[in-house]
Amino acid sequence: MLGRLQAVVVVVAVAIPLVTAKRAHDLPPPIGVQVGHEVHYVPPDTLFGDLVRKLHLHARNGSLFDVTGKVLRPAEYPGRILLNGRVVRKAQLLADGDEIRVLNGHDQTEPRVRQVIALPGNVFANPQFYLTSAPGEEIVTKGKISGKVVGSEIRNTGPETTPNAVALTFDDGPSPLYTPQILNILEHFGVKATFFTIGFQVEEHPDLIRAELDAGMVVGNHSWSHPESPPFRELPPNRMRHEMLKATAAIRGAGGDPFVFRPPGGTFDEHEVAVASSLGLRVVIWAVDPEDWRNDAKANEIVDNVLSHVDAGDIIVMHDGGGYQDATVAALPKIIRGIRAMGLGFVTLTR
Ligand code: ZN
């Protein structure tokens, strides 16, 4: 401090004769202060705070954001205005050659952490199409401070196993005409299957849902109204949720508790899987589609289609509603016998 005052005194002593030659005697010579790339000349009694105010200098504050982009801690990283590289009081007297720098605080995002969760049972290797599963773990990525989850990924940690079985599934019921016939055949052969039911039909025929449940079948969710255009995965998110929720409510009203969802038309993407998952539903499509929904489908063609394509672990789609399913009813006993002849059993879908 003393050294700087002496330096000022020396500068002033040298400057006076030059200035007095041109200017009034009582005006002290200005001092030069570097602000950014410019030098500002101010009276020698100027305080640091005065110049900051006069030049409207302002340092922006940086905030800490969470992983989703919301402010977690506002102004966590304050901006600073430095004099000669140091934080000083506003009342600090400026000296010739001083340098003022504005340092803005930078926005930052909280760090991400990865958490590995061992999963108790097996997880499906290809959950939408096959019954194949493997031991697995879930890797969750979240904000270190907020705990908000930004991603989750399930990874296999061991060898895949495929059951010596297939899953028969029936869509577009319940139908008072076809569902009882299909149930009779399944019960006759001792086969358990999964029914993807349409919500508004469930509400009309809750007795058929109870019959399915009593026979040990699994009742899944096939949307409330079976919207087909646009494709289900392109529905606005609210409509998609509504279709899933309302069907689940109808099935619960009939005594079921759906945990699998099949979109009408079988269209799905990551977003749809996430919406379904948030409602406790696993999206399941199929591996084998014998196209029994065609009005001109023949029973023997349906049988051939299934038996020539089916393999252990496959999910097979057929229909107990939605059209003329007489061919499906006629084909079903032959399909069951044929699959059994291949040494395969029948399972229902699981969570
Ligand atoms: Zn359908």
Short description:
The chain has 351 residues and is an alpha/beta fold. Helices cover 30% and strands 26% of the residues. It has helices at residues 2-20, 48-54, 179-189, 199-204, 206-214, 237-253, 270-278, 299-309, 326-341, and strands at 31-35, 38-42, 62-65, 71-77, 80-83, 99-103, 108-109, 112-124, 133-143, 149-156, 165-173, 194-197, 218-221, 260-261, 282-283, 315-319, 345-346.
Shape: rod-shaped
Q: Count the strands? A: 17
What is the average per-residue confidence, as pLDDT, rounded to a whole number? 92
Strand content: 25-35%
Pick out the low-confidence regions: 1-21
What binds here, in terms of ligands, is:
zinc ion
The radius of gyration is: 37 Å
Distance between the termini: 76 Å
Q: Helical region count? A: 9
**Main sheet summary:** 5 strands, parallel
Sheet/helix structural class: alpha/beta
Percent helix: 25-40%
Order of helices and strands: HEEHEEEEEEEEEHEHHEHEHEHEHE
